[in-house]
Amino acid sequence: MLSKRDSTSTAFHSILTKVIVNGEVQPKDTIQREYIITKMTNLEVPKHTLNLDPRQQKSPLRSGATPSPNLPEAKHTHIHPRGSDGNENAHLRFIGTATTVLEWQGIRILTDPNFLHAGDHVHLGPGVQGTRQTNPAIDLEDLPNVDVVLLSHYHADHFDQKVEAELRRDLPIVTTPHAKECLQDKKSDDEKFTAVHDLDFWESATMNISSSGASASVPAVKVTGMPGKHVPPGPLSVANDLLSAVPPTNGWMLELGYSTDSAFNCGYRIYISGDTLLVDDLKQIPEKYTNADKPIDLMLVHLGGTTIPSPKVPLLMVTMDAQQGVKLMQLVKPDVTVPIHYDDYDVFLSPLEDFKKAVQEAGLESGVVYLDRGEGYRFGVKGE
């Protein structure tokens, strides 16, 4: 991987080649624009670097009980809609809500852990409560070793009270700056999480995976914060910023691949939308990926049309409904889409059937895999 100095030098050279044309320096606004673009796309120095060792098997819970060696067997395992190419080496398991487990190279990444059961309640903001309608595919106590938690935002249907009480305090968590403040800075010394790594939009972290074999390249996961907006732009968004009623949220871009001393080679790219609406900021994603020869292989799209303050008083939608989900597919053009976060709480008013219908009407059904809770999806990360 490039040092910070080498990366800066590369970025400076890139700027010069863009702002000096035919020997003439371009206007100041051109220089400023190119500097910003180059800083966002050329500097590969991560904000955080995590070193993960799959040989260290620890319970994700504070109890320290010996963890299960593996996830329970999937109810059914799906593959690419066009069939298998025989190179599947990674696995995604859908647990429920926005909770998934990603397994590759011996590590496990747990997203938005929510393990409450049907009838349990979560607090979603001032005067806003949700009731769970379903059970997770597995219980929190049955989790095997988890290497990293990827938390899109600090909301109880993504990080519930049971999870917050029982997770091991030194378990690495990658999340938003707001969630880090809640999990670390605002907690007492004996309750604070000690390995929280915050990422804002377009900031990245690299997770290097220890390998027993000698190789010039190291398996790694690069995670980058993607734009997201839980509240629609306008006066309500301004009011929410003042009241902090609905927390800020991230999407994520996960790039699975291999690092050498000089480069990172992505072998599979996963976009997780997070609890966002279809806002203009998302247009930056295809600009930086799909249209920049960095195709998105898999999208996990958070749906449900979450409506607050309650199903009986649906005043404000704060996550994408079926129509917005299809428009996001058309915007970022993933190879495969897996919908999640669609029927687990009573505040979700846009059911999966609405999304299926909208997908079919748009002619996109060949690029969607539907997972029930407890089912999995296998895919292949390209080699070193």
Automatic annotation (TrEMBL):
SUPFAM superfamilies referenced in this protein's UniProt entry, alphabetically: Metallo-hydrolase/oxidoreductase (SSF56281)
InterPro entries the UniProt entry points to: Metallo-B-lactamas, RibonucZ/Hydroxyglut_hydro, UPF0173_UPF0282_UlaG_hydrolase
Region (Disordered): 47-88
Regions of compositional bias (Polar residues) in chain numbering: 57-68
Domain of life: Eukaryota
Gene3D superfamilies assigned: Ribonuclease Z/Hydroxyacylglutathione hydrolase-like
Span of domain Metallo-beta-lactamase: 108-342
Protein name per the record: Metallo-beta-lactamase domain-containing protein
